[in-house]
Each structure stands twice: as structure tokens, then as C-alpha cells.
Design brief:
Layout (H helix, E strand, L loop, with lengths): L3 H4 L4 E8 L3 H10 L4 H30 L3 H31 L5 E6 L4 E6 L4 E2 H25 L4 H16 L1 H11 L6 E6 L4 E7 L24
Antiparallel strand pairs: 1-6, 2-3, 4-5, 5-6
Length: about 230
């Protein structure tokens, strides 16, 4: 569906728009107001932090015990890989997920000064179910493969490479989960979203109808929103 079918439809009203530059503040606000996807984000990031601390402690212990630096080197290499090629892979997975749910025009964007990277489907409309696939695909694919790598290379240097990727990638998924919170914070509204590349913005529209008590916060923030990577 093209975005013009939504903005010209009297049964829909705009409830939020977000400039791509404002994604981080938006994500934080939506996470703070949520008890569903926000809990997933918190648990995932705490798990990632614990795993990385465990890996660092174990690798550093090898240095003290046997002057073996290779484990710590692989841990650092994993972190460098994640925040370079790993980010590209993360966004590529978003793009493939967009294609899977029917997007025709997918493009990549970034705000390097803010270390913000995202994928957008210009002018194409998606609902919550479709957007969940787009948002969660990198988290699931990277997480499962990193765990598999740790299992295969247990007690080997490559174990620390995959451990680093699993642990730190959890922080790359906060933006994706924050956007999902926007939908979940308004459970009684039928919400769709689309991007406008030329404007550098994404929009959320809801089908007009009775607002329930649980969704009073929906119109409190006619904030700027982006369907970003989700990142």
C-alpha cells in the first residue's frame, strides 16, 4: 500500500511523526512507558552486559594465569567487527526483512555524528505485524548464530569472538525494540507506519475510532518518529 492511500483516507489520522535525527530520544521515551518490549530490551541488554563481563574476566584471567593474550584479542576483535561490519549486516537483515514483508523500495541511511544507522522503505505502508518481522529479524538471526558459534568453538579463541558479538549486539537492538514499544503502548489502535525519504521522517497513522483508557498516552506525544534500525 502506498502512503497516499493512508494520508488521503478520512478513516486514518496522523498520531506521530519523527525526524530521523530524533530517534534516540523517542526510543527512550517509549521504552520508559512500556512494560512489554521494554522488559525484553532490559533483560537482553543486562544479559549481554553480564556475558561480556564474564568473557572479559575469563580472558583476562588467562593473561594472569598463563600470559595467554589470544582470548582477549579475539574478544576485542569481535567488538571491532560488530561495530563495523556487524552494523552493516544488522541493517542488511532489516532490508531483507522489509523485502520479505513486501517492500519494493528499500534504502539505507545514516547519521554518522550520532552513530545512527537505519533502513527505510520509502512511501510504503506497514502494520504492526509486518513491522515486528522487520524489527526483530537482526536480533534473532545474529543472536542465534552467535550462540551457535559459542557452542561450536567452546574453549577456543573463536568462542570469545562470538561471545563479544552476542553481548554487544544486544545494545544495537534497543532502537528496534523501542519502535515496537510505540505500537504496544497503544494496543487498542490500529496503527500503520511509513517512511518519507525526501523528508527524512517516518509517520504513524491510526484508524479513527474510540480511544480507550489504556491508550490515552497515544496522543500525548505528537512526537517525531522513525521506522529506523530500528538501531
Amino acid at each position: 500500500m502506498n502512503y497516499t492511500e493512508i494520508i488521503n483516507n478520512p478513516n486514518y489520522e496522523k498520531i506521530a511523526e519523527l525526524h530521523h535525527n530524533e530517534i534516540k530520544s523517542f526510543v527512550i521515551r517509549e521504552l520508559l512507558e512500556n512494560k512489554g518490549w521494554a522488559r525484553v530490551a532490559i533483560v537482553y541488554q543486562l544479559l549481554g552486559l553480564f556475558v561480556f563481563m564474564f568473557g572479559f574476566g575469563t580472558a583476562f584471567g588467562q593473561i594472569l594465569a598463563s600470559r595467554e593474550y589470544v582470548f582477549l584479542v579475539y574478544l576485542v576483535v569481535g567488538a571491532v567487527f560488530l561495530f563495523s561490519f556487524g552494523i552493516l549486516f544488522h541493517e542488511l537483515l532489516h532490508a531483507l526483512a522489509y523485502k520479505y514483508v513486501g517492500a519494493k523500495k528499500v534504502s539505507f541511511g545514516m547519521k554518522l555524528k550520532k552513530f545512527l544507522f537505519y533502513v527505510q522503505a520509502d512511501g510504503e505502508v506497514f502494520n504492526y505485524k509486518q513491522f515486528k518481522i522487520v524489527a526483530l529479524t537482526p536480533m534473532l538471526v545474529v543472536g542465534v548464530n552467535a550462540i551457535a558459534g559459542m557452542a561450536i568453538f567452546y574453549n577456543q579463541p573463536l568462542f570469545y569472538f562470538f561471545l563479544s558479538i552476542f553481548a554487544l549486539h544486544s545494545f544495537c537492538c534497543a532502537g528496534d525494540l523501542g519502535i515496537l514499544c510505540f505500537f504496544q503502548n497503544r494496543p487498542n489502535e490500529e496503527i500503520v507506519t511509513f517512511d518519507r525519504k525526501s523528508e527524512g521522517k517516518s509517520y504513524f497513522y491510526a484508524r479513527k475510532g474510540e480511544k480507550h483508557e489504556s491508550t490515552k498516552g497515544a496522543n500525548k506525544h505528537h512526537a517525531e518518529l522513525v521506522s529506523a534500525s530500528p538501531n
